[in-house]
Amino acid sequence: LIIIAARPSVGKTAFALNLAKNMAIVGEASVGIFSLEMSREQLIQRLLCMESLVDLQKVRRGWLNDDEWKRLVQGASKLMKANIIVDDESNLEPRVLRAKARRMKKEYNVDAIFIDYLQLMNLGDRRDSRQQEISEISRSLKLLARELDISIIALSQLSRAVEQREDKRPRLSDLRESGAIEQDADVVIFLYRDEYYKKQHVDLPHETEIIIGKQRNGPIGTVTLMFNPSFTNFFEADVFHSEE
């Protein structure tokens, strides 16, 4: 079980979609995506812009030049060949997810499943405290990953406690509503963008720290990537500057 966590609007979904796209296109893996927040059409549009390096806003408005159309067609061709299965049911309980994931494994032999995002899941009519609910959801994802022998990558929100500190880099204690998420996860990845907090005074406006806060079988540490909001894409610094 892998958790990707950040405050809202830092780029959790963009980072997860970059991972999913690269796994499917470069790694030729079969990937399932459960999108509780975004419709299937919106999600595919974002994947297409990432792969084609075409501005998402231009696509939405239809303001594209010939070169951008050409890149979109090439990107669409790659995405159509990739094995990415999207489910956009917004009201998802663990038992429903389990049934759908088993079907995905049986029909498409998925290697990984992404869930965007964990706090939008619920236990139906049960009236447990939110903390108990999140603990149970987190545990169910861990067991499902083991049962199907796949990676489950779940996005998670962080608590507002981050905002009260001077150093706003996330910590494990910031995982929202449950210490169980920290306990169940094999890997916890935090995203941190200085730009998010210091919009006027940042040196590199697109720099994002990818912080490995927990890794059960490996080292922890920080990797810096560049985020291009036009394509909602992450790059290594040298690639990013050559694209600008």
Can you tell me about this structure?
The protein has about 240 residues and is an alpha/beta fold. The chain has a single domain, classed as Rossmann fold (3-Layer(aba) Sandwich), CATH 3.40.50. The protein is about 45% helix and about 20% strand. It has helices spanning about 10-25, 40-50, 55-60, 65-80, 95-110, 130-150, 160-165, 180-185, 195, 235-244, and strands at about 1-5, 30-35, 85, 110-115, 150-155, 185-190, 205-215, 220-230, 235. Strands 3-2-4-5-1-6-7-8-9 form a nine-stranded mixed beta sheet, with helices on both faces. The longest helix has 19 residues, at about 130-150.
- Going by CATH, the architecture would be 3-Layer(aba) Sandwich
Count of beta strands: 9
CATH topology: Rossmann fold
Number of helices: 10
Q: Could you give the distance between the termini? A: 35 Å
Shape: globular
The helix/strand class is alpha/beta
Arrangement of strands in the largest sheet: 3-2-4-5-1-6-7-8-9
CATH superfamily: P-loop containing nucleotide triphosphate hydrolases
What is the percent of helical residues? 40-55%
Domain SF4 helicase: 1-241
GO cellular component, one term: cytosol
Protein name: Replicative DNA helicase
Organism: Fervidobacterium nodosum
Give the structure's gist in a few sentences.
With 244 residues, this protein is an alpha/beta fold. The protein contains ten helices and nine strands. It has a single domain, classed as 3-Layer(aba) Sandwich (Rossmann fold), CATH 3.40.50.300.
Helix-strand blueprint:
Blueprint: E1 2-6, H1 12-25, E2 30-35, H2 40-52, H3 56-61, H4 66-81, E3 83-87, H5 94-108, E4 112-116, H6 130-148, E5 151-157, H7 161-164, H8 179-184, E6 187-192, H9 194-197, E7 207-215, E8 221-228, E9 233-235, H10 237-243
Parallel strand pairs: 1-5, 1-6, 2-3, 2-4, 4-5
Antiparallel strand pairs: 6-7, 7-8, 8-9
